[in-house]
Amino acid sequence: MAYLPLRTVTVLPASERLYDAWVQELDDRLSEAGADWYRITREVLFQLWYPGLSDYDGLVNDPATPAPSRAALLSLDPHNITLEPEYYADVDAERFARVKPLHWLWQSFDRSPLGGNVHLGVRLRRVLAKHLFARVGRNFKSFQFVEFSYGYNLEVGDDCVVHRYVLLDDRGGITLGDRVSISDYANIYSHTHSIVDQKDVTNVRTVLEDDVRITYHATVLAGVRVGRNGMVGAVAVATKNVRPYHVNVGIPAKSIRIKPNAPPEAYVAERIAQQHAEP
User: Fold this and answer.
1) Smallest Cα–Cα separation from 190: which of 176, 218, 171, 175?
2) How far is the C-alpha of 75 from the C-alpha of 26, rounded, in Å?
3) Residues sharing a CB contact under 8 Å with residue 78, sequence separation 6 or more, in sequence order
4) What is the mean pLDDT of each run of 10 residues along the chain (279 residues)?
5) Model-level pTM greater than 0.85?
6) Gap between the Cα atoms of 30 and 24, Å rounded
7) Would you tell me the crossing angle of helices 118-132 and 13-31 to the nearest 10 degrees?
């Protein structure tokens, strides 16, 4: 089997300087005491979607501007849109109102003409995560179309990678340890509904410990702890805890093997589990 580390991709120096300057300027603005994140988001999105134009208020208030165009312009301002988490009964309205513009900037950037620029997108989302999450470690990498519920209940360690179209439902809280990797289209939940009454909701923290891998289209349900170096296979649904260094697959996910780099105690735990399972 070939060993295929990621390539180092270079960006033209002039472009790199421009990206650096813009991302740093945005971070500085967001970091200012009393910064108006709603206005900053509106200004950035207006510049992204309508390059070369400068009079946002004039366009919105001009009767000659077609109604659909005015609606599109208004939607650049987070005050004028609603996001799904705002409808949840357990939302902390004040905390979500604070981070709402950063949700909207994250989502709208991904849908903009610049959104497919992986190099720039990773750096921009890293800045937004610093202000949006409860905690984020160094070298966080998120690709396009990742979504969260609240954001403020999400804790992320160092060197984590989240790939495209991942859902991180942090209603009850999600903790990602260091070097966690979550593949495309995976879903990590921290809330669950009663099978009797859908309005009966249980929130419980979900934890992915250090060096965990959640692979393509897999789902981790609320309250599950995936132990250090554990792995949830493609399309699997983890309904119960995953032991350290174990590879769990299937629906519901069950351990099928232990990683070859596992310490001796991982095998001891496996033997104990097998003994308990015997009639």
Assistant:
1) 171
2) 20
3) 38, 41, 42, 100, 101, 104
4) 87 93 98 98 97 95 96 98 96 97 98 93 97 98 97 98 98 98 98 95 97 98 98 98 97 96 80 52
5) yes
6) 10
7) 10
